[in-house]
Amino acid sequence: MKKKLIVGNWKMNGSLQANAELLSALVQGMPAALTCGVGVAVPSLYLSQVQALVQGSSIALAAQDVSQHEKGAYTGEVSADMLKEFGVRYTLVGHSERRQYHGETDAVVAAKAQAALAKGITPIVCVGETLEEREAGKTEEVVKRQLAAVIQQLGHCISEVVVAYEPVWAIGTGKTATPEQAQAVHAVLRAQLAAATEHAARVPLLYGGSMNAANAAQLLAQPDIDGGLVGGASLKAADFLQIIAAAN
Ligand code: PEP
């Protein structure tokens, strides 16, 4: 069976003390025989702290965003080279909160994915439809459009990314897509990847949207769900560890 990947997205949460407590509990509680990948996507300011806290553990460091630019006059931005200096292995790109509140377009998201990959950081490309789009029957069209922009930018290197399907209506709302709803979209994404690369089967497709200790096992049992991108539940060590156990 393909190795699963569970990534926690802390969003704009945490403090020096809370991070230390959370990571200490995670490192101690990690299954002895860990077969799945685990990562935490932390606010940029805490990358240095968390890099030290996860050192020697099997927890990978992830960023929540990356600049599409290499360097220069882009106040407030963080480049892929900078992330690399802090041992960052993955970065989210195109999270719906970035698309919604920061106006990130499909083209910007694709450029960010390329900027990360060029420096050896694996982009976790987030795609997903709003409730309005789902109700209008546009789910497939929307996620395919979002992924197509990244495929167009990366070409065959699309096999090097991670894709996260995150229905916007399920993020932070407590409403989870049913395993069948999520699997249906994952199958669409897998087919789209297969048309772009012969290595589509190895692209991890994560589900995100109110994944928690109670629903993780069922979601992760779906054939095209290779892991989870976990927001709220990744801030509680016990819950995140239960999700990791379900993926292990
Ligand atoms: C997310 O922020 O990527 C996410 C999935 O959040 P939540 O698990 O809280 O819905």
Automatic annotation (TrEMBL):
GO terms for cellular component: cytosol. Substrate binds at N9, W10, K11, G172, S210, G231, G232. Its EC number is 5.3.1.1. InterPro entries: Aldolase_TIM, TIM_sf, TrioseP_Isoase_bac/euk, Triosephosphate_isomerase, Triosephosphate_isomerase_AS. One of its GO terms (biological process) is glyceraldehyde-3-phosphate biosynthetic process. The active site is at H95, E166. It is an enzyme of class 5 (isomerase). It comes from the Bacteria. The keyword Membrane does not apply. Pfam families: TIM (PF00121). Keywords: Cytoplasm, Gluconeogenesis, Glycolysis, Isomerase, Signal. It is found in: Cytoplasm. Gene3D superfamilies: Aldolase class I (3.20.20.70). CDD domains: TIM (cd00311). PANTHER family: TRIOSEPHOSPHATE ISOMERASE. Belongs to the triosephosphate isomerase family. Involved in the gluconeogenesis. Catalyzes stereospecifically the conversion of dihydroxyacetone phosphate (DHAP) to D-glyceraldehyde-3-phosphate (G3P). This is Triosephosphate isomerase. The lineage of its organism: Bacteria, Pseudomonadati, Pseudomonadota, Betaproteobacteria, Burkholderiales.
